[in-house]
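Weekly puzzle thread! Below is a chain. First person to post its structure in token form gets bragging rights.
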Amino acid sequence: MTHSRLAAVMASLCVFGAGVGLAQTKPNPGFEKLKTLVGTWESTSRDGKHATAVYELVSSGTALLERLGGDEHAGMGMEMITVYHPDGDRLVMTHYCSANNQPRMRAEPVSGEAEALRFTFLDATNLASPDAGHMHSLVMTFHDADSFAQEWTWRENGKDSVKVFHWSRSK
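Winning reply:
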């Protein structure tokens, strides 16, 4: 079989496989709610520090990519990435943190309209020890189509600190 013929066969198998996978997927209410975030969001802390969040559907709409950034002292440091995706009827996310670790968190199934999603720590890669600083939980509360809040919990040496962002849609 020539290389071009083999490539054509492989491409058609990938397309066929992707179509079959999509046809068998049940709707996930939590992920459907997350998909409404696609766009650009802004937040300003009480001390005037600015943060941005950009949401984009990736991988044929099967994952939501979040890019967080802002002023150095807004609690963000440099840009961070979080990827959200369904795992059956649950949601899973991996947070690629500027602390150089990657916590994974899971939200339980949502029935009906999702007003809040509560992600809890599963595990982390590149975490020096269980006491090393890492994002440990995230609660996302949806107010309306143009505003929502995130409550990030940082855990270090067994102590938690919380940073809340109130987001408004800018695009």
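Puzzle host: Confirmed. Bonus trivia for everyone else. DSSP finds three helices and ten strands in the chain.
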